[in-house]
Amino acid sequence: MNLFDVYPLYEVTPSKAKDVFVFDENQNKYLDLYGGHAVISIGHGNKYYIKSIVDQINKIGFYSNAIKNPLQNELAVKLANASNCNNYSLFMCSSGAEANENAIKLASFYNNKSRIISFKNAFHGRTSAAVAATDNPNIVAPINSQQKVTFLPFNEIDKVKIELEKNDVSSVIFESIQGVGGLDQPDEEFINNLYKLCKKYDVCLIADEVQSGFGRSGDFFGFQKFKIAPDIITLAKGMGNGFPVGGVLINRKIKPKYGMLGTTYGGNHLACAASLSVLHQIKENNLMENAKVVGDYFINKAKKIDKIKNVKGRGLMLGLEFNFEVAELRKKLIYDHKIFTGGSSNKKLIRILPPLTIKKEHIDIFFKALKIELKKH
């Protein structure tokens, strides 16, 4: 049997990893400025993380949600303390797409409506309603396109108001910092007005924090820059530092009932152990502050390079935009300089999503390599 060929692959085979570095089968050392799509939050091979998972699997690794799992309750309490999101309940799942799928479903249960408002260049996952709310027709199958989704631009509140006045919108879903779409951010005034309009029309506001959550932006959640309280918050990626885990934070005005949501693997013992250890290490090592400090350092260095057209993002969710497509530049960085970076739907943009443990000295390594390559353009 062969693999279903849907991934264009770089000719690199990682065999081990430590903190911000990945090593291939030939012991070449790569600086990881991508974190496997913003997944690696507390660093590869974190000792506390490994011990937590090993200790847990020696007790019990999995059982379904048909029984009590006190680790879920512990995670809910510690997540509320870390994020200061206290008026929410936690539902656990296994991925960001699953989190967004459940968020959209919950909103529809809540107000008995079905249309979704999403935004240009949004990415919310590859399943059912989540992919329908993703602004990429190439990955939306005919069965997905049956969903009722309207795409609007950021920062044009009048267009949102026109749609909400039609009284058929169930939810508005947004990324505080767009990931795959290219690191664009909505204006604070727009988000504050969006929040007010959703309240007025009883529409659920969903903050997709799958990439920007768990400290990556410098705040626990990216939306916290705006001082709003979304009805539903979705999270995954950095939540597990590589272990498959996702979650949905649900405002308590949305009432649960048995059978409303469900999952086989979500919230299993190992997933909880992984997430609890991530929270511990974020606090213990002051990683949100590190994301701010190193992120600012990166931005300041990038702004001094003339060939960089635009610097996007904040914290350690960053993008560098050029006047040319960056595919070849990224190949040079990985093959000649041993540095992982990310791409986006904006073909002229490099994404930077390193572990939150990264230091200024690692940023210097990247810019040294980047300057060498930019001299060739």
Write the CATH homologous superfamily of the largest domain.
Answer: Type I PLP-dependent aspartate aminotransferase-like (Major domain)
What is the share of helical residues? 25-40%
Mind telling me the CATH class of the largest domain? Alpha Beta
Q: Structural class, from helix and strand content?
A: alpha/beta
CATH fold name of the largest domain, please? Aspartate Aminotransferase, domain 2
Head-to-tail CA distance between termini? 43 Å
Query: Which residue ranges are poorly predicted, with pLDDT under 50 across at least 5 consecutive positions?
Result: none
Identify the CATH architecture of the largest domain: 3-Layer(aba) Sandwich
Q: How is the biggest beta sheet arranged?
A: 7 strands, mixed
Mean pLDDT: 97
Cα-atom Rg, whole angstroms? Answer: 20 Å
The proportion of residues in beta strands is: 15-25%
- The total number of structural domains is 2
Characterize the overall form. Answer: globular
Contiguous helical run count: 11
Query: Which series of helices and strands comes N to C?
Result: EEEHHHEHEHEHEHEEEHHEEHEEH
The overall strand count is 14
* Sheet with most strands: strand arrangement: 4-10-9-8-7-5-6
Main attributes?
4-stranded mixed sheet; Aspartate Aminotransferase, domain 1; Aspartate Aminotransferase, domain 2; alpha/beta; 2 domains; 14 strands; 377 residues; 17% strand
